[in-house]
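Lay summary. Proteins are chains of building blocks that fold into shapes, and those shapes determine what they do. In this project we predict the shape from the chain. Here is one chain we studied, written as its sequence of building blocks.
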Amino acid sequence: MSEMPARRLPPMESTLSPVDEGKVRISVRLDESEVEQALGATFRQLAKQVRIKGFRPGKAPRKVLEAHLAPGFARRQALGDLLGDSYRQAVVRHDVDAIASPEIDITAGEEEGPVAFEAVVEVRPCVNVAGYDTIKVSIERPEATPEEIGKEIDAQRAKFGELEEVARPAVDGDHVEIDVDTTLGGEEVPNLCVQDYHYELGSGGVVPEIDENLRGATVGSILEFNAAHPDPEEDGLLRFRVLVKGVNALRLPPFDDQFAARASEFDTAEELRADTAGRIRNVKRSYALSQLRGEVTGALARLVTEEIPDALVDAEVSGRMEDLATYMEKQGQDFEQYLESAGRSRQELADEFRPGAQNNVRIDLGLRAVADAENLEVEEADISEDISRMAAEISEDPGEVRRRMEETGGWSRLRAEMRKQKALRWLMENVEITDADGNPIDYESVVTDESPA
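And here is the predicted shape, written in a compact code that computers can read:
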């Protein structure tokens, strides 16, 4: 466990020792003054709550309160708060990565004098990820192919295209003028009957059978065929009768400098082609980067073969449930009503989340293991920059944010998250990347230009 920055902690002694696999023991000793301070705070609180004849709320002396309370009541109350606070401070002091609630046992001072207790708690395990440095992944090549560039340019040209009547049979891309009559069980279906409709052949509108029958049709053709209703809740076959009244081809303007100046901010066709290729490339790089992350973390998760703690999985599931409830609340929906309308219980939803939660836990443990194996550490400058960013988001002083994080253990959590990000970056830079055909892909080709790393 790493050294934490110095911080002011209460006058207590504490030690850390292993118990068995996955657990540690924190032993704490509190001096009598610390116990007395907690006891005094408890009596002040009880004085506000307990009604004693002759005294206003909060004004009854301690000895009077002691006489009215059961023996040892106030001390038990005080120790409950004191032990919880002292345990949390010891966790921060020893940088314990606890993942569950502790089992606390008072070993001395339960009735009087200094207090000693032991807390046994489950900690995040260290896993083995043998083979992480030989991971191989396959992603789509982040390059714009001539076919993709041509297709995008044709789409731009189509916006300025003109329809021209042709005498040949209809092919995909043609705009066919048709009358459509549709019946179901011998009765007309009004919303599927239309006159003088201009339909783009190959667009897959309404039902697939329309495209299948229109291909090769000529002016004057009458096509009759059956098809399933596009509404899955409707039974029976639809009967279509289609009259072809015209076949029009879309004539595209030539891709030249004149078109480029008309259709874009560029003066030449070559500039427009280069811009089109760049936009396609950036989209593919963004997708490739996302795909690379997914493939790498998926491969890493499969290397974590040890049994993962239920406490970590349960926490991940709870987090997902809370995130969903928060999202629904922002959308003006009640979480419980959503579950009821979906016919699911909380447990059923939790069970659905569990496989994904288990995978996320394996990724978390795997990235921590890679960071340890590669000695990836976080620089003070990086942490300070992140703290300054967080402070700016909540309009607080960075020094105050840092102090609070040091006292609550947030420093360790931030450092752990930043180390995991470094581990993921290391993996993405060092795994073997290929395309579907096994051809190598350089990592830099995925993250250059406008693609964020």
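What the prediction tells us: Residues 12-122 form a domain with the Alpha-Beta Plaits fold (CATH 3.30.70.1050).
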